[in-house]
Amino acid sequence: MDKKTKKGIIAISVVVVLGIAAYKLLKKPKALPNPNIPEPKRDNGGVVIGGVVIGGGTNTQVTINAQKLADDIFEAMDGWQTDEQKVKDSFNLLKTQGDLDALIVAYGYRKLNSGIWGVPDFSGDLVASLKDEHDNGEMYDINKILEDKGINKRYGIDL
Length: 159
Known about the structure:
By secondary structure, the protein is mostly helical. It has 2 domains: about 1-30; about 30-150, no CATH class. About 50% of the residues lie in helices and about 10% in strands. The strands form 2 sheets. The chain has a 3-stranded antiparallel β-sheet with strand order 1-2-3.
């Protein structure tokens, strides 16, 4: 193999490795499994996840794309600064208790990057992430959105 062919192979290999690394760094985050939440089980027409009954009762129809909304909320909170308006706008899209249930399940357990060197990242479910990223006034606003829509606030989003 001549020198020119070797250089070509090395160049192609470097491009492939850089492409794979860029893909892994830039791909959308997925929900992390939460080792503290047991497998779902049925209870009173709903599913119990982490000790919370999801679904069952009334107002349980799902009218949203929960995974997209969960990703939008995650993106609004991930990194250096939280986009509080984007989070509120996302909660304004919820119409039913089923929407909130589906959103909590779709969000799962994720790691939020603090965006600041030396400040630890945060891992948690939707409610814990909201509480970590928002002050009491912002939590009140989210709570008020849910209340105005008649959505039961049984997930610790209450102040």
